[in-house]
Amino acid sequence: MTSAFLQIQRLRKTYDDVVAIDQVSLDVRKGEFMTFLGPSGSGKSTTLYIVAGFQEPTEGRVLLDGKPLLSVAPNKRNIGMVFQRYTLFPHLTVGQNVAFPLRVRRRPEAEIKKKVEQMLALLHLAEFRDRMPGQLSGGQQQRVAIARALAYDPPVLLMDEPLSALDKKLREEIQLELRRIHQETGVTILYVTHDQEEALRLSDRIAVFNKGCIEQCGTGEELYENPASRFVANFIGNSNFLPVRITARDAAQSSAVFPSGHAIAATGDATLSVGGDGTLMVRPEQIRIRAAGAAKNTAGLPVTVRDITYLGDAMHYSVTTPWAQDMSVRMPAGDHRDSGIVVGTQAWIDWDARDTRLFAQA
Ligand SMILES: Nc1ncnc2c1ncn2[C@@H]1O[C@H](COP(=O)(O)OP(=O)(O)OP(=O)(O)O)[C@@H](O)[C@H]1O
Ligand SMILES: [Mg+2]
């Protein structure tokens, strides 16, 4: 038994010798906000379009509420879709655009009227009811597209980078509305973006796509705290990746040395053996930095401070390791004031072993 509402099972799509996606499997719960995050060409849209019915997979299947979906004609799937570019009918008013999917379904006039008003209110669009799409801003047009997609109460709403054509302020505004609409309607959403901040802000869970496969799926916190690979660590949040050689290991922890000979403890990849090379990941905000003269921990690194940037709530330090690798360090701005750290001088950095991850060398 599974509580999955939408089940995507071993999808594969090829174009001649191009493998667009392979072995894509995912269970989505009813009412979940699931985001596909990944670089360009990683297979996000392909997966979405197969669910929508715009494309047929080479292999695999999709179940909605336990029933096979792929044999259902696209226009019978009852799945709402919002695209990156506004796809409103230019010759219809806002109200007529929202009413369109209901008219196609031949709903009674009274019901259409009621539903259109409800959707316009939900998206804060009532004052624009009689305008043409060309008389609206990009953000307003995209809100109309969302209202139209939700008008017939689809159980699933698919959105392919719906905000990417908007400027940052508008994007954040509609992100907030999307969260509210998701909470108010309980619709299950599959959402595509390559903006990690947007993914973190909106999603219950995020599926990270890489080269046609889902590399990891989890809550933002899980992906951030426990990235399964260097790729995921790089995609969610910022990271430093440092070369290490494993010197000892037991079940919980490994010991390793940097190219400079400095030793550290780390947790992570169980496939690494003593003598093997790996990559140590540590996030800029999990590093402590202090002036070289200050009392220091046994495990850590001497670095040269190259640059210090004030970011309002934080200080950002660009530092260089003894083997000439650049690293980022972030610290609350208040902690910097009396630290004595100055550009051009030596500093000492360290961190808690539990805040690091060890990956087999990529
Ligand atoms: N009609 C097609 N013919 C050949 N290859 C295709 C076709 N459509 C998509 N592809 C390839 O499939 C892969 C996945 O494409 P897809 O559009 O799913 O990526 P995406 O993750 O949505 O990327 P983006 O972020 O740029 O939108 C890409 O390598 C792409 O070039
Ligand atoms: Mg795409």
List keywords for this structure.
single chain, 362 residues, alpha+beta, Rossmann fold, OB fold (Dihydrolipoamide Acetyltransferase, E2P), 6-stranded mixed beta sheet, 9 helices, elongated, binds adenosine-5'-triphosphate, binds magnesium ion
Compute the gyration radius: what is it? 25 Å
Order of helices and strands: EEEHEEEHHHEHEHEEHHEEEEEEEEHEE
Summarize the biggest pleated sheet: 6 strands, mixed
The CATH homologous superfamily of the largest domain is called: P-loop containing nucleotide triphosphate hydrolases
Ligands? adenosine-5'-triphosphate, magnesium ion
Task: Note the total helix count.
Answer: 9
Quick synopsis:
With 362 residues, the chain is of the alpha+beta class. It contains nine helices and 20 strands. The strands form four sheets. It has a six-stranded mixed sheet, sandwiched between helices.
